[in-house]
């Protein structure tokens, strides 16, 4: 299948404003009716280093990034050298007229004549917008909204440079393949995964979030901070991740639905706190935005390498749930689900995302939030006998959770093993009963587990298994294989724990060949499936260079 749509890659150094014009361009495209998928690649430097902002656009719905570049916007000569070989047929490069590495594919732009260095990125935005047929007034409107009420002279210079860029482009005999226009565009939001997680948490009833900054999770909390006053949230930057998880547990114990957001290195420090939540049966949502490890690894790149870590992080045995959104919409809805499951089963619940999805803007239909309920912390104290037993043994393992200070009852909790009323004990009979009680909650979590999503016909020749952010690229790779006449299906997991074999084992067994596509080096989901079902997925398509999966990369690996 031929690729659909159009792919723009903006490249340059950190500090040149490429993200600024990328976001303005992406939002203009969304308002023009296009579906978009943004991929951001950046080095862990404040200034310098080679960064890119890629926008794939199409009048039709698209779900993943693509590799061939139709328009390369080069803010420096290095971008030309690094990405010239990625050009699609008839692809073009926007480059400064003085660039020595330019060739016949280049459109030489007199950036110095159009704008000073400070505004050269706006000139590049204008030329690119003109070439692909975007309305200059719409770009101008989005640009004014982006910068807000800043210096009047700066706003006027932005307008002047944008107009000059459009005027210059109109006079050029430039041939470029343009994306198909959209008729009757419908209103949609431009949103990335981290923004959707923040909004999902707020809609679920979040009242407290603690954190220590760690890429790529920090922007979740920055979005919450921006809305904290309006929405009645408390957002607290702690001195470290140990303090952050314990603050969240304390707030939840007091009745405030709570969350922490971190990445692998931060979660490493949180694991004792996660065990505390397991022992005290305190609901808390933990968002882990994955990046390549071990240690600091590649702190601004992407990977799916922490599934096993999040599954086993925290000493002792207690139930948990791990949700792995694959789209921006799922980031919103699965974060809501995380709060519901955490409160219902009084346990830690994890939302496992990654840098690619965190930073990937998409065109999203506005969420219908009018009928979305938020969690209600704590149980009704009426009818609860005295003395109150916080950890009462029940058939389903879930005990009535009263909030301290909200009734006549004394609410006790302890990190040691305890009796039903919360007092420390070393009675080994009680120990057995409490372990079994906590594990019984896992039965309910399993009953509520989301089944993986199957697309395609039954008994396929090839079944592609995926999880999390690989959803879009795998789905598109499968579509391309189908268009070549092959019988292929996909099985995607948006929840990777608990795994319920009855939900998917038959699908694996009926396929002639199964391949698991993951962004890690060891096939962590494939290994987990084998552990839980005994089914071995022999073929594994694994990416671990820090870059996101693409349909083209998956197809190359399948052939290899």
Task: Please outline what is shown here.
By secondary structure, the chain is of the alpha/beta class. It is built from 18 helices and 20 strands. The chain has helices spanning about 20-30, 75-85, 110-115, 120-130, 135-145, 150-170, 195-205, 220-230, 240-255, 265-280, 305-310, 330-345, 355-360, 430-445, 470-485, 505-510, 525-535, 550-560, and strands spanning about 5-15, 35-40, 50-60, 70-75, 85-95, 105-110, 190, 210, 235, 260, 285-290, 320-325, 350-355, 360-365, 455, 460-465, 490-495, 495, 515-520, 540.
Keyphrases for this structure?
alpha/beta, Rossmann fold, 4 domains, Pyruvate-ferredoxin Oxidoreductase, domain 3, 560 residues
For the sheet with most strands, the description reads:
7 strands, mixed
What is the CATH class name of the largest domain?
Alpha Beta
Helix content: 25-40%
Q: Give the helix tally.
A: 18
Instruction: Work out the count of structural domains.
Output: 4
Name the poorly predicted regions: none
Number of strands: 20
Distance between the termini: 19 Å
**Strand order of the main beta sheet, please?**
9-8-10-11-13-12-18
Shape by Cα distribution: globular
Cα Rg: 26 Å
Structural class: alpha/beta
Here the CATH topology of the largest domain equals Rossmann fold
Per CATH, the architecture of the largest domain is 3-Layer(aba) Sandwich
Average predicted local confidence, pLDDT? 96
Proportion of strand residues: 15-25%
Tell me the CATH superfamily of the largest domain: Thiamin diphosphate (ThDP)-binding fold, Pyr/PP domains
């Amino acid at each position: 299948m031929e690729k659909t749509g159009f792919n723009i890659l903006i490249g340059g150094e950190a500090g040149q404003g490429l993200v600024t014009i990328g976001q303005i361009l992406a939002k203009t495209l969304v308002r023009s009716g296009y579906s978009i998928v943004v991929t951001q690649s950046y080095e862990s430097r404040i200034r310098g280093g080679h960064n890119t902002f890629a926008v794939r656009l199409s009048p039709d719905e698209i779900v993943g990034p693509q590799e061939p570049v139709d328009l390369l916007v080069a803010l420096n000569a290095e971008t030309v050298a690094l990405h010239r070989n990625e050009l699609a047929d008839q692809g073009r490069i926007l480059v400064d007229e003085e660039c020595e590495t330019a060739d016949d594919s280049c459109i030489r732009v007199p950036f110095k004549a159009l704008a000073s260095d400070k505004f050269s990125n706006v000139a590049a935005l204008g030329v690119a917008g003109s070439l692909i047929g975007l309305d200059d007034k719409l770009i101008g409107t989005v640009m004014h909204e982006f910068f807000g009420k800043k210096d009047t002279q700066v706003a006027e210079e932005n307008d002047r440079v944008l107009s000059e860029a459009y005027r210059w482009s109109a006079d050029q005999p430039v041939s470029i393949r343009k994306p198909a226009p959209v008729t009757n565009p419908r209103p949609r939001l431009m949103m990335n995964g981290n923004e959707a997680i923040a909004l999902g948490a707020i809609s679920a009833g979040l009242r407290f979030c603690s954190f220590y900054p760690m890429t790529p999770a920090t922007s979740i909390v920055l979005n919450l901070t921006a809305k904290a006053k309006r929405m009645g949230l408390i957002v607290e930057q702690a001195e470290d991740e140990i303090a952050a998880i314990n603050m969240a547990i304390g707030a939840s114990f007091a009745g405030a639905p709570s969350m922490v957001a971190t990445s692998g290195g931060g979660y490493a420090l949180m694991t004792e706190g996660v065990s505390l939540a397991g022992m005290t049966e305190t609901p808390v949502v933990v968002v882990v935005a994955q990046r390549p490890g071990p240690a600091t690894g590649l702190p601004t790149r992407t990977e799916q390498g922490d599934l096993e870590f999040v599954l086993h992080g925290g000493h002792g045995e207690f139930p948990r749930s791990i949700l792995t959104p694959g789209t921006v919409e799922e980031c919103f809805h699965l974060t809501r689900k995380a709060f519901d499951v955490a409160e219902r089963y009084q346990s830690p619940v994890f939302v496992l995302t990654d840098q690619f999805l965190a930073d990937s803007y998409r065109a999203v239909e506005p969420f219908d939030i009018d009928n979305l309920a938020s969690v209600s912390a704590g149980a009704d104290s009426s009818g609860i006998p005295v003395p109150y037993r916080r950890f009462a043994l029940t058939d389903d393992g879930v005990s009535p959770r009263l909030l301290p200070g909200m009734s006549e009852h004394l609410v006790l909790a302890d990190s040691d093993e305890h009796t039903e009323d919360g007092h420390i004990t070393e009675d080994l009979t009680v120990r057995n009963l409490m372990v079994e009680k906590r594990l019984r909650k896992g039965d309910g979590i399993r009953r509520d587990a989301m089944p993986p999503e199957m697309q395609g016909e039954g008994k396929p020749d090839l079944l592609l298994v995926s999880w999390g952010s690989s959803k879009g690229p795998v789905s598109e790779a499968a579509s391309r294989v189908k268009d070549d006449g092959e019988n292929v299906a996909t099985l995607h997991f948006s929840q990777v724990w608990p795994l319920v074999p009855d939900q998917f084992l038959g699908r694996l067994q009926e396929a002639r060949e199964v391949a698991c596509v993951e962004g890690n080096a060891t096939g962590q989901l494939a290994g987990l499936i084998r552990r839980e079902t005994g089914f071995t997925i022999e073929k594994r398509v694994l990416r671990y260079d820090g870059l996101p999966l693409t349909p083209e990369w998956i197809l190359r690996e399948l052939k290899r």
